[in-house]
Amino acid sequence: MAAITQANAGYVSDETVSVFALDEFVQASPRMPALYNQQGSSSYREVRGSMSGLDDFQVKTPMADPEEDRPVQQFKKEFLHEELALSVKVERKVYEDQNFPFFQQLGRKIGESAVRTFEAQAVKVFNEAFSSSDYLAEDGLSLCNAAHVNVDGGNSQSNAGSTALGYAAVGTTQTAMRLFTDYRGKQIMVEPDLLLHPVTLDQTAFEIIRSSGDPTNANNVANYHGRLKSLSWSYLDASDTDNWFMIDSRLMKQNLIWYWRMALEIFGDGDAFKGLRRLGGYFRSSHDSIDWRWIYGHAV
C-alpha cells in the first residue's frame, strides 16, 4: 500500500469519514424524514402564513363573472434557522499508521451523533405539543390545545384529549378530527390514518391495528382500525410514556416543515502534518408546525 502523503492524507480521511457517516444516517432509519416535509431554504429565515379558506363554488350565471371571494389572512409563522455542529481532533500518528478502521468507526460515530441530534430536535414538536412556548400553532397556542381560535377569536376547536390508547379511543379521536373546520367554519377533508406513539405502546397499537377482528367484540366482527398505520418513536418523551397522537399524514406533510438552510455536511479542517486535523459535521436548519388540524394528541 502506498504511503499517505501530504497531498492526499486529508482527502482520504475526510472522504472515508464522510462515506461512513452518511451511510450510518441512512441505515439508522430516523423517524424525522418520515414525518416532516423537508424543504430547502436560501435565507436566514422562512416565514409562512395562512388564510381563512375559501367559500363554496357558486352557480355561475351565463355571461357573468364568477362570484368573487376574499379570503382573510389569519396567522403567520417564522422559521429561524440555527446552527448545530460537532468536531473531533485526530492526531498525526493516526494518518502515519494508515489506520483506516479508525476513520470508518469515527465516520459511523459522527453519523450516529447526527441522527441522534436530528431526532432529538424533530421530536420536540411532539414532546412539547401540550405546553410548549417554542413550538406553537399559528394562533399562539400549544400545538395540541382544547381552545384553538381564529384570528378574530371565534370558532374555538379542540385537538387535545387525555384518554389512554385503546380501540374505542382511536375511533372517538378519528371522529373528532373528521369534524374539524377551517377558519371560516367550513368543513374540511381530514382523514386520520396514522398512530404515533412511544415504544412502550407498541403492543397496544399492534393489537388495535393488526388484529383480524375487533379485539373488544366477542362476535368476531371485522377490525375497523385495520386500515390504519402506526409508527413508534423511542425519542417520544420518556417521562410521558402513555401519550399518543392521531395524525392525518397528508395534512401533516403540508404543515410539519423542516427547512434545510445547510444540509448535513461532513468536514475536515487543519493540517495533520502539523500535529492534528479536525473532522466533524455541521448543519443549519429550522422546523415547526404551521396549522394544527393534522394532529390530535392525548396527554394521558
Explain this structure:
This protein has 300 residues and is α/β, with parallel strands linked by helices. The chain has a single domain (10-53, 83-298), classed as Alpha-Beta Complex (phage-related protein like fold), CATH 3.90.1690. 28% of the residues lie in helices and 26% in strands. The chain has helices at residues 9-27, 32-35, 92-96, 100-122, 124-127, 167-178, 202-210, 249-255; strands at 37-40, 45-51, 73-80, 82-91, 160-161, 194-197, 229-232, 244-247, 256-271, 276-289, 295-298. Strands 5-11-8-6-7 form a 5-stranded mixed sheet. Strands 1-9-10-4 form a 4-stranded mixed sheet. It has a two-stranded antiparallel ribbon with strand order 2-3. The protein is globular and about 80 Å long.
Task: Kindly state the percentage of residues in helix.
Answer: 25-40%
The second-level CATH architecture is Alpha-Beta Complex
Distance between the termini: 61 Å
Shape: globular
Strand content: 25-35%
Q: Could you name the ranges where pLDDT drops below 50 across 5 or more consecutive residues? A: 1-9
Number of strands: 11
Specify the structural class: alpha/beta
Write down the CATH class. Alpha Beta
Give the neighbour order of strands across the main sheet. 5-11-8-6-7
Major sheet size, sense and barrel closure: 5 strands, mixed
Task: Fill in the CATH topology.
Answer: phage-related protein like fold
Mean pLDDT: 84
